[in-house]
Amino acid sequence: MGTAADPAFDRETLRRGLEGENPDILLSLYADDAELRIVDRTTQPSHPKVLHGRDEIGRMLEDVYSRDMSHKLERCVIQGDEAAYSESCEYSDGVRVLSESMLSLRDGKIAEQTLVQAWDE
């Protein structure tokens, strides 16, 4: 459990951020210099999409949360300065997306994230 000097990553804030309709709560969990690597069908492991800093990550989150889709936090495990979570999403037309994220944490914030996602085709 975190202290004032070493705050804990907040699972409930993660849930509210992921499942909400506004990306600001989720963005608040990222460190200013966070790095997000995304691996999927179009950005494969040898050439992942890499976003640097809260500004780039925020623009991506704004795009995602502008879509007509729902998000649900399925599982979240936090251990020390690492965390992992599963998220399921569904577009209004029924297309589903599943993502898995591994996080490195610093001072209770996401410093690095690797997100692997797959969706119905």
TrEMBL record:
Q: Name one Pfam family in it.
A: SnoaL_2
Q: Tell me the InterPro entries matching this sequence.
A: NTF2-like_dom_sf, SnoaL-like
Origin superkingdom: Bacteria
Q: What residues does the SnoaL-like domain cover?
A: 17-112
Tell me the protein's name: Nuclear transport factor 2 family protein
Q: Which organism is it from?
A: Streptomyces dubilierae
Taxonomy, top ranks, is: Bacteria, Bacillati, Actinomycetota, Actinomycetes, Kitasatosporales
